[in-house]
Design brief:
With about 80 residues, the chain is mainly α. The chain has helices at about 20, 25-30, 30-45, 45-60, 65-75. About 60% of the residues lie in helices and about 0% in strands.
């Protein structure tokens, strides 16, 4: 398929894990911090940074998603 190639982006590698976590809705709802910690560990990334990205994304998507509102509340810094 010409013209339908992935577009590379350069950014924080911790952000790359987000789509995988967002695809695991049951795990995300049950324990968002635990899921972020596990994914970070599997990828060899900083746990805190992955959790911060997940929090930011959940806030961004919370307007139209009750699940993401719940995730944002649970990950919100104290």
């Amino acid at each position: 398929m010409a013209g339908h190639r992935p577009k590379p982006y350069v950014g924080d590698p911790a952000d790359d894990l987000l789509q995988h976590m967002l695809n695991c809705e049951d795990r995300l709802a049950a324990d968002p911090a635990g899921l972020a910690n596990r994914m970070a560990g599997l990828a060899g990334m900083d746990t805190g940074r992955v959790r911060q990205w997940l929090f930011a994304r959940s806030v961004q998507e919370s307007i139209g998603s009750p699940l993401m509102r719940q995730v944002a509340r649970r990950l919100a810094p104290a």
